[in-house]
Amino acid sequence: MTTTLGRTAPRDLAAELPARLSLTSKTTLASQLDGAWWPYSRDLEAELPPLAAALEEPWGRITRVTVNPTRWPVVPRTVPVDGRTLHVGWFTEQDPDKLILLSYTVGRWDLLVIPPETEPAAAVRLMAAAAIPGSVLTAGVLMTNEAAIGRGIRDVPRQEVGWENEGGACMSPFGNPMDRRTLPLPGNGWR
To answer: Which of 113, 133, 165, 186 has the highest CB neighbour number within 10 Å of its CB?
Structure first.
């Protein structure tokens, strides 16, 4: 699960790897998402066959897929999957971080699409969050939240270095270090 291939991953290699999925458990709670998918590349023609194969047992035969083209360099009209054709459509109105899967017999499923270049720790957090039954968080909200969490994690070492370099200085509410001259005086009610 920790291997991430670049955007130029060979198609045959992507087809050999299992689909990285996290699906919601069967429950009566309706969610915004039915799980998450973490593809190895941005090549839909290589990535969709393993995804459709992995979903055939739990969800049935996938016949159509829709995506937002902003995240995919090429959106093929059809993709061959096990001797049949998977139809692919695109809609700019669709959330760019979501993949919609359709079946004639079973229905519709919405998956969060985690970008292939995502760090493994972030992908694990996103996969877990997208698979929570009854969650009202959309794909866009999950990705925005993860970006904020990622910034926070990256900022912690910098903040610790700043704390040490300042000698543990107190910070003003405006983010500036405070020294003795800027601290409130004891006569003003501070001790």
So the answer is: 113
